[in-house]
Amino acid sequence: MAAGERGPAVCIVNPASGVQRGRTIEQRIATELPEADCWFTRHPGHGIALGRQAVEDGYGTVVAVGGDGTLSEVANGVLVAGGEKVRLAYVPAGTCNDFARGLRPVADLGGLLDRARDRETDVGEVTFTRPDGTRGHRYFLVSCTVGLISVIGQRFTEKTPANRVLKRLNLQLAETASSIRTLARWRPVAVRLELDGEPSHQIITNLAVLKVPYFAGGLTFGRAEPPRAGYLDAVRVAGVGRAGVAGLMWRVFRGAAAGHPAIHRQEVRTVRVDADSPLPVEVDGEIVGRTPAEFSIHQSRLTTVV
Ligand SMILES: Nc1ncnc2c1ncn2[C@@H]1O[C@H](COP(=O)(O)OP(=O)(O)OP(=O)(O)O)[C@@H](O)[C@H]1O
C-alpha cells in the first residue's frame, strides 16, 4: 500500500508514559484528531514494532504520543522500515519531553497535519554491545550518555527489591536514591575517546552525546542551543572529584552550569568511546547496552512536527 492510502495519520500512544497522566491525551486525540487511528503500546519496545507497522501499512503521518522514550522507539521503527518519507509527529506526554522543549507544540492536535509546521531533523545513530555480547544499533533524537549518568540510569532500572519499593512510593525519590548511591562510590573512569577520528586517553566522569541541548527534563550543560545540522555535541565532564561532581550537579539543577571548568564541549560528526571496564550506554533515556559505542549522524533526515 502506498504512503497515505490508510488515512492521514496513526497515533502510537504509550499509556505508561508521564506521571499520573490520566486519559487527557486520549480524549484530545478523539476530539482534535478524529480522522487518526489510535494504537497503544503494550510493553517496552512495542513502539518500535508499531512504528514499523505504521510505515508498512502506508500511513503518511505517524504520531508518537508519550515521552522521549516513546518518540525514540517510534522513530526507530519508522527508520528501520525505511520510512524516511513518513512525517513523524510528536505529542509530548511524558515526564521529561526534552525533544519538544524550546519548540512550540500545536495548540490543537489537528495542527499536526499542517505541512507548514514540518521541519527537517537530524537523526543520531549509535552502535553498542548488547547484554548478550552481540552488536546493537539504535537511532536517537535526543541524547545518549556514557559514564556517571548512564550508571545512575542503570542502577535506577535494576529490578531490586529496594528499587521496587522506592518506585512504588515515589519515582523522584527512587531516582534520587540511585543518584546518591552511585555518587557515593563514584570514581572517574579511564576511557579511550575518538572525536572525529582523533584518538585520546581521558579520565572522565561523564560523556554526553547530544542532538538536543536538554536532558532529564530541561537541564542543560550550560548551553541551550542544539548542535549545527550534521553535527553532534560531545560534552565531557572531566577533572572533578566526587565533591566537585556534587557541586556541578547542583549547578546543573539550578541552570547555572555555563562556563563551569569541568564541562568540555565539542561539535563533532563522530564519537567513539571504549573503556577497560565496559560502561552502560543510555540512548534517549533507555539503557540499551554497554561500551564500546560509536555515535554519528544518520545519512537521511526525518520530517518531524510537534
Ligand atoms: N504499555 C506499557 N507498559 C509499560 N511500559 C511501557 C508501555 N509502553 C511503552 N513502555 C515503556 O515506557 C517507557 C517510558 O516511556 P516514555 O519515555 O515515553 O515516558 P517517560 O519516561 O514518562 O517520558 P520521558 O522519556 O520524556 O521522561 C519506555 O521505555 C517504553 O518502552
From TrEMBL:
<protein>
    <submittedName>
        <fullName>Diacylglycerol kinase family lipid kinase</fullName>
    </submittedName>
</protein>
<keyword id="KW-0418">Kinase</keyword>
<keyword id="KW-0067">ATP-binding</keyword>
<comment type="similarity">
    <text>Belongs to the diacylglycerol/lipid kinase family.</text>
</comment>
<keyword id="KW-1208">Phospholipid metabolism</keyword>
<dbReference type="InterPro" id="IPR050187">
    <property type="entry name" value="Lipid_Phosphate_FormReg"/>
</dbReference>
<dbReference type="Pfam" id="PF19279">
    <property type="entry name" value="YegS_C"/>
</dbReference>
<dbReference type="GO" id="GO:0016301">
    <property type="term" value="F:kinase activity"/>
</dbReference>
<dbReference type="InterPro" id="IPR017438">
    <property type="entry name" value="ATP-NAD_kinase_N"/>
</dbReference>
<dbReference type="InterPro" id="IPR001206">
    <property type="entry name" value="Diacylglycerol_kinase_cat_dom"/>
</dbReference>
<keyword id="KW-0594">Phospholipid biosynthesis</keyword>
<keyword id="KW-0443">Lipid metabolism</keyword>
<keyword id="KW-0808">Transferase</keyword>
<feature type="domain" description="DAGKc">
    <location>
        <begin position="4"/>
        <end position="131"/>
    </location>
</feature>
<dbReference type="Pfam" id="PF00781">
    <property type="entry name" value="DAGK_cat"/>
</dbReference>
<keyword id="KW-0547">Nucleotide-binding</keyword>
<keyword id="KW-0444">Lipid biosynthesis</keyword>
<dbReference type="InterPro" id="IPR016064">
    <property type="entry name" value="NAD/diacylglycerol_kinase_sf"/>
</dbReference>
<dbReference type="InterPro" id="IPR045540">
    <property type="entry name" value="YegS/DAGK_C"/>
</dbReference>
